[in-house]
Design goal:
Oligomer: single chain
Helix content: 25-40%
Low-confidence stretches: 1-19
Largest sheet: 8 strands, antiparallel
Number of domains: 2
Radius of gyration: 22 Å
CATH topology of the largest domain: Beta-lactamase
Number of helices: 12
Strand order of the largest sheet: 3-2-1-17-16-15-14-13
Order of helices and strands: HHEEEEHEEHHHHHEEEEHEEHEEHEEEH
Amino acid sequence: MRFRVSFVFSVLVALPLMAASIPEAKPEGVGLSAERLLRIHETVQSHIDSHQISGAVTLVARKGRIAHLEAHGVMDLDSSKPMAKSSIFRIWSMSKPVVGVAILMLMEEGKLRLNDPVSRFIPEFKGMKVAVTQERPSSPAATAGSPAPPLQFYTVPATREITIQDLLTHVSGLGSGPASSSEMPGIARKPGDTLADFIPRLGTTPLDFQPGSRWTYSPLAAFDTLGRIVEIASGQTFDKFLRLRIFDPLGMKDIFFHPDEDRLPRIPSTYHRAGDVLQKTEAINRLFSTNYFSGGGGLMASAEEYAKFGEMLLEGGQLNGKRLLSPKSVELMASVFVPETFAGRAPGRGFGLSVQVVSDPIAAGNRVSTGSFGWDGAYGTHFWVDPKEKIVGILMIQTDNPNRQLDRDFENAVMQSIVE
């Protein structure tokens, strides 16, 4: 009797984790061709053979089921260790849409508004200045390898305060260019700094342009600042909020800021592409301290775990009965806030709340449907959600100067496999 009770209890405890997985399906069961899906491997292998990447993991889900999950190449060139489907990747800026969801969850709860000034939560952002760049001083012809003369600029008052929406859409000017970058050494993170320690110091840096006047990518500053706003609005540390409110409800176990010892063997080596040679780069592992949770680029994840996040967005904010957002909030997230005609944007590619939105696939050169949205990571990771075709596509690689043509080739290989 005791055994039966223990068994039943174990099954009941395991049910939430079991339910959290995305079910698998044969390709034909979700309108894909198994034969045509083989072209994904051919595509990735061609980039491996030309020394663009060392290996990859690819995933395609359609209509709520995974129809393709494959590992390609190796995790490490020196050891020739094969890539595994469960490999864990540094997803870098694919962290940003996770931050976007966190902000929208707090918006739904009435704890913040998109048009709130950042200074409502972080007073040091009140009265920020905007850099006006001057011409660099003339100097004798520089010798090869000599440093460029320092950037010269003066500051003027910002015409308005930067808002949460500005940070989400990369139109704030915070950490977006040479003027702000030149000031970063003076406020550099110290060992042990948390978001609470560092982010207020960003308020002393100049904005690179007047808020809302153009689109220029903020690699870390904007979304690290949003992470601090999550902490203040929720009363929880950023990592705890993501774990309790997003990752655990979606059953995302293999996503985190800092790996434990048991996960280290599952993390592929990182590489820099120099011509036709891949050079290993290890310094990347030490970019963030264990006390600093970067919303701009700090997360690591496996393809299958991140797919749960993408599928939640595709299903209108819920997965397996766990609702994070309303469908209207997901629709808002994937709406074009910054059109392709805006200064700094590329043809056919608008920008929403933390995600790029393909507004014109032909102009963009993307083989996806109009309205598809997603984002990339600096080491070559890429994902998109296609609401029209009910597809989530994920590509995981680890090369710091990726040939983004692989993104387009992968999209093409996925889309040509749709047969109904």
